Amino acid sequence: MHDPQVEQLDYQGILALQQERLVKLGERLARSEDWVTHFAAAGMKPGDLAAADGLLNAPFLDKDSLRARYPFPFLTVRMEEVMRFMATSGTTGLPVLFGQTNEDYNGLLRRQMARILTAAGVRRGQRAYQGYGYGLWIGGPALDLGFAALDCTTFPLGPGRGELAAQWMSDHRYEVASMSPLWLMTLVTIAKQTGIDPKRDWALKTAILGGQSVSTEFRAQLEAEMPDGFMSQNIYGTTEAGGPILAVSTPYTHADDELQLVNEDTVLTEILDPQTLKPVGPGEVGEIVITTLCKQASPVVRWRTRDLVRLSPKPFDCPSGRRGMRRIGRIIGRTDDMLKVKGVIVFPSQIEDIITSTPGTVKEAWQIYVDKERVTLSSMCVAVEADPSSGRAPDEILSDIKREVRARLGIQIEVECHATGTLPRYEAKATRVLHRPMPS
């Protein structure tokens, strides 16, 4: 266990540590004009975070607030102290930059990633294929830091070059891999096409999969392709949090399809009803809202991630010994990814569950098409690919998907079945909802 004194605290111990660090955070923010102005709009001062209910009354932070202070929003250190910047994806506008001091990057992030990887089952000295992207994006560098902290031998291939990656997975005997789950499934397909059997020829024991949440069925099918004893673990984080450091599934949560918030001593996580913005209870769905307690350069307070998750019915006392670090379900979707079709709320993850459990589909290849010209969606089209090796006719696949959508969601949709290789493949985060004119 990494940092056992903190990891063995009960929840009251975690809360006490958070409050102590909130006081220090308020003192730091009080020296920033941007943060003083931000708190003043809510009738508060940053120092009010020291109060027992200070955070509960603090203003929320969203992308509009960040973009209003372009190009370096809420930077709380001098530029000379910033070691590097990282950026959001910019899928919904201009990317937002977040600074990191040397301590943020080589100290805090390294420790957070070491704990995440240790919790997921990565062992010191293993060989690791790092398949997340680099540049301004934090995924690849963060995994590099974590693997280095555990003395792993890292092969930073990044995403792409599938045939080479599939071959090297065998030749180099990687024991750990970090990448998107869709890219790993694509590598399995490429390996088989080149005569490599991952179950026999690869040495993978653990995969650290992120970028998007996948269904239990998809995960089970991916694990069935791997060597005996292999386990995939879902990692979750955001650029605003400082990287993929918020939660990870572990050998103790895997069977329940849950993750654990293993860095709650440095990132305070609220799970709030997205309408009332009040805390949800065990078993209820809420939005993840984060406050970074220890970041120096670009902290956030009550950042609304827009990610929806179900707090575990039994969030505490994990058999791992992490007694006060809460468990959550896999990410259900984003509030801004939510579709309303004929009055019914639909998340892409619900469609993925159906596609993945339908025999004959290519699990990593599917899209949802909606008409962007229509404010209220009266129709939705789901496109899938037929796996020719399944022996199932496209009409059978279409019929199964339509029936399951109707049974589970109560709506009728259109379904298209394409030839293998037709739909986009994603090496990192998948864009599942695309816009195109729908037939009248």
Summed up:
The protein is of the alpha/beta class and 440 residues long.
Provide the spatial order of strands within the biggest beta sheet. Answer: 4-3-5-6-7-8
Ranges where pLDDT stays below 50 over 5 or more residues in a row are none
User: CATH superfamily assignment of the largest domain?
Assistant: ANL, N-terminal domain
CATH architecture of the largest domain: 3-Layer(aba) Sandwich
Global structural class:
alpha/beta
Number of helices: 13
Mean pLDDT: 90
What share of residues are in beta strands?
15-25%
Please outline the major beta sheet: 6 strands, mixed
CATH topology-level fold name of the largest domain: Rossmann fold
Question: How many structurally independent domains?
Answer: 2
N/C terminus separation: 59 Å
Shape: globular
Helical percent range?
Answer: 25-40%
- List how many beta strands DSSP finds: 20
Identify the CATH class of the largest domain.
Alpha Beta
Rg from Cα? 22 Å
Describe the structure.
- The protein has 440 residues and is α/β, with parallel strands linked by helices.
- The chain has 2 domains: 1-333, Rossmann fold, CATH 3.40.50.12780; 339-435, GMP Synthetase, Chain A, domain 3 (2-Layer Sandwich), CATH 3.30.300.
- The chain is 30% helix and 22% strand.
- It is built from 13 helices and 20 strands.
- The protein has helices spanning 4-7, 11-29, 33-40, 54-57, 63-67, 102-120, 139-149, 162-171, 181-193, 198-201, 216-224, 348-356, 394-409; strands at 84-87, 97-100, 127-130, 153-155, 176-179, 206-209, 231-238, 243-248, 258-260, 267-272, 285-292, 303-310, 327-329, 333-334, 339-341, 344-346, 361-370, 381-386, 414-418, 433-435.
- The strands form 6 sheets. The protein has a 6-stranded mixed β-sheet with strand order 4-3-5-6-7-8, with helices on both faces. A 4-stranded antiparallel β-sheet has the order 10-11-12-14, with no helix packed on it. A 4-stranded mixed β-sheet has the order 19-18-17-20.
- Helix 11 links the parallel strand 6 and strand 7.
- Helix 6 packs across helix 7 and helix 8 (162-171) packs across helix 9.
- The relative contact order is 0.11.
- The model has no long low-confidence stretch (mean pLDDT 90).
